[in-house]
Amino acid sequence: DADVTQTPRNRITKTGKRIMLECSQTKGHDRMYWYRQDPGLGLRLIYYSFDVKDINKGEISDGYSVSRQAQAKFSLSLESAIPNQTALYFCATSDLIDSTDTQYFGPGTRLTVL
Amino acid sequence: GQNIDQPTEMTATEGAIVQINCTYQTSGFNGLFWYQQHAGEAPTFLSYNVLDGLEEKGRFSSFLSRSKGYSYLLLKELQMKDSASYLCAVMDSNYQLIWGAGTKLIIKP
Prior knowledge:
The complex is a heterodimer. By secondary structure, chain A is mostly beta strands. Chain A contains no helices and 11 strands. In chain A, the strands form 2 sheets. In chain A, strands 2, 4, 5, 6, 9, 10 and 11 form a 7-stranded mixed β-sheet that branches. In chain A, a hairpin with a 2-residue loop joins strand 7 and strand 8 (73-78). In chain A, 33% of the residues are buried. The mean pLDDT of chain A is 94. Helix content of chain B is 0%, strand content 57%. Chain B is built from no helices and 11 strands. In chain B, the strands form 2 sheets. In chain B, strands 2, 4, 5, 9, 10 and 11 form a 6-stranded mixed β-sheet that branches. In chain B, a hairpin with a 6-residue loop joins strand 4 (32-37) and strand 5. The radius of gyration of chain B is 13 Å and the shape is globular. Chain A binds chain B through residues 40-45, 58, 88, 90, 100-108, 110, and chain B through 4, 8, 30-31, 33, 40-45, 48, 50, 87, 89, 91, 95-102.
């Protein structure tokens, strides 16, 4: 059973469309993250949340928004998609009580904006 | 600025040993992580170092020198399935992970 799931796994959309990527986890972790990955670049943090009432901007939050609907769910929205948001998007979780704060990743969503 | 450097690509032979280096300059240090990522898949956790020295876990070992801002991942008895990208990441003073671009490891028979 997958501990961190993402839907959809692949999505092709057009410039200007609103799109939502969803992440769910059964690990019971408090902390959740959204990253994007582009070829030749390291993972870049978009937003993160340490609990349901906590939302924080990451390195590259412009053009994105998030919602933490429950401890287990963290959604990423692109309000008006643009081609340079084409990337592989990962959700990750970590446990507040884990002293190492190791992050565990979902399978990713490949997003193409035409 | 914060920076993580690792080689872009390395090639090694099945059954051999390979060392993947990572150097970092970050604002603070709260641990260094290595992840493995097969093409198109999620990164998976390999190792964590916060104190200087070597951590061994089966065929994989990771070394850290905080004074030098340096780590390496050592893979022994290479197998074809070890062909993947290896990502180095450092947790900074704000407990944010700063990621290297990854080292693509190609294993040849």
